[in-house]
């Protein structure tokens, strides 16, 4: 069982803070995050499954994806098409391994995990994910969600069947149609590409944050607290107070 975690660090022009807690409603923390000390990649995964299967799935995801990125991507020289291909292959590899373990081990049956990531190559950011863990950008004090939830409610919003406000309380808001551990989990991630500018702040989180802290709250906290660790602590606390019923994990990254 993973204990609550809190880290901070700096590399070059990047400074980060990360917090992960079990929360009020779960017995164990099935979230995982991984921050590369050289600020080449940042990962958040939210596991699901009975017993300790969710923990295994999220731990496998961050380990396997980071290991494969190290092999497939030259963080100093790779062109963008190679980076995107490397990201997709890394996630597909993790997906296949999680599926295989789920079939081999009865205790891991039907386990799965989300993942959201930032990969940094030659000063360019690649942000994406699978599932409903999210990536955000705060630029010029305005918050933008950079990832799309692979949830039934988001599909209904895109189809125009329900509104984004309806989706926040919809009974299917946490039901995913795509995550690692399924056949659909290894398909292309189609990451957002952007060149960060001084003052940008990025945030990766599990749905424990977004379920308890709406976008306007996230925007307010990121604007109010400059230190990335304090911002991450405040976001986790806001989500907990806002009624989040899941594990809560948040990584805040400053471009300085």
UniProtKB/TrEMBL annotation:
Transmembrane segments: none annotated. CDD domains: PP2Cc. GO terms for molecular function: protein serine/threonine phosphatase activity. It holds the Pfam family PP2C_2. InterPro entries: PP2C, PPM-type-like_dom_sf, PPM-type_phosphatase-like_dom. Residues 15-255 form the PPM-type phosphatase domain. This is Protein phosphatase. It comes from Planctomicrobium piriforme.
């Amino acid at each position: 069982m993973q204990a609550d975690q809190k880290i901070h660090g700096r590399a070059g022009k990047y400074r980060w803070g990360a917090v992960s807690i079990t929360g009020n409603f779960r017995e164990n923390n099935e979230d995982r995050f991984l921050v590369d000390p050289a600020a080449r990649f940042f990962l958040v995964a939210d596991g699901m499954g009975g017993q300790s299967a969710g923990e295994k799935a999220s731990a496998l995801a961050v380990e396997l994806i980071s290991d494969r990125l190290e092999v497939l991507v030259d963080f100093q020289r790779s062109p963008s098409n190679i980076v995107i291909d490397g990201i997709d292959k890394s996630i597909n590899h993790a997906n296949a391994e999680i599926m295989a373990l789920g079939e081999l081990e009865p205790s891991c049956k039907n386990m799965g995990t989300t993942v959201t990531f930032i990969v940094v190559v030659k000063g360019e950011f690649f942000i994406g994910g699978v599932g409903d863990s999210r990536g955000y950008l705060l630029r010029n004090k305005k918050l933008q969600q950079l990832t799309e939830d692979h949830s039934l409610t988001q599909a209904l919003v895109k189809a125009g069947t329900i509104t984004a406000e309806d989706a926040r309380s919809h009974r299917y808001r946490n039901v995913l149609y795509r995550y690692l551990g399924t056949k659909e989990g290894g398909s292309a991630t189609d990451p957002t590409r952007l060149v960060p500018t001084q003052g940008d702040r990025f945030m990766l989180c599990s749905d424990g944050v977004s379920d308890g802290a709406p976008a306007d709250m996230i925007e307010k906290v990121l604007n109010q607290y400059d230190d990335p660790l304090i911002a991450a602590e405040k976001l986790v606390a806001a989500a907990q107070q806002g009624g989040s019923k899941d594990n809560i994990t948040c990584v805040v990254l400053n471009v300085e």
